Amino acid sequence: MSKFVVGLTGGIGSGKTTVANLFAELGITLVDADIVAREVVAKGSAGLNAIVAHFGSQILTPEGELDRGKLRQRIFSHDEERLWLNQLLHPMIRQTMLTQVNQATSPYVIMVVPLLFENGLDSLVSRVLVVDIAPELQISRTVKRDKVDAAQVHTIINSQWSRAAKLASADDIIDNQGEISHLTQEVLALHQRYLQLSGAANAHD
Ligand code: ADP
Predict the structure, then answer these.
(1) CATH of domain 1-28+108-199
(2) Do residues 8 and 124 touch, judged by C-beta distance below 8 A?
(3) Best mutation site among 12, 18, 129, 161 for ligand 1, i.e. most ligand atoms within 8 A of its Cβ?
(4) Residue limits of CATH 3.40.50.300 in the chain
């Protein structure tokens, strides 16, 4: 039986985490790409062992954890090293996400993936839900949340798929430009829809 999986995406600061938490409150299992990306390089993992074999143990903190700052330096402006790292980690992340999806017991699963389209992970999902806000709001909310400057957020936005491209590839869209309180209703309506769709999908298995 294959699970009904909703890919939840949107640009930085659009409200993915906020929306995902509302689905979690309804009892839906979340599979989060950012969390999985940390798990595959956790202390003792095959991913971290491969990174140490490639870059040497200087890539570790004194506690034996991955030193992300050092790794960033090592791949910064070294395209072949970045490629090597992506080729190592992307299949591991993909596989771990699929394993977590298969272990989930909720009627459907929300896969939270910031770079769903950019990393080709939309092929793993049954349906795509995009959280949408205007770039100016992405900037102001991210600046407030992360205490970073607007220029940094702007650079990140420009490195991601455009708002129009994401909207054009969405099956469902949540407009998160209003109050947070409005989200609850939108999430509830989508939840009903996904329960129906997953029920229909499961009945055909
Ligand atoms: P993402 O996970 O997509 O980066 P978050 O869910 O962390 O986005 O939301 C970005 C920031 O904006 C957070 O601080 C969050 O609390 C806030 N936020 C989310 N939705 C709204 C909203 N509708 N109105 C005001 N602030 C919001």
Answers:
(1) 3.40.50.300
(2) no
(3) 18
(4) 1-28+108-199
Contacts of 190 (CB under 8 A, 6+ apart): 129, 172, 174
Two tokens, residue 53: 């074999």
pLDDT digits (tens, 9 = 90+) for 145-198: 999 999 999 999 999 999 999 999 999 999 999 999 999 999 999 999 999 999
Backbone φ and ψ of 187, nearest 5°: -70, -40
How many whole angstroms from 112 Cα to the centroid of ligand 1? 14
**Alpha carbon distances (Å) from 40 to 35, 53, 200:** 9, 15, 34
- As a whole number, the mean pLDDT across the chain is 95
How far is 80 from 85, CA to CA, in rounded Å?
9
Bridge partners (DSSP) of residue 30 are 110
* Ligand 1 atom nearest residue 182's Cα: 23
pTM of the model: 0.93
Q: 């004194």: which residue's tokens? A: 62
What does the DSSP assignment read for 143-164?
HHHH---HHHHHHHHHHSPPHH
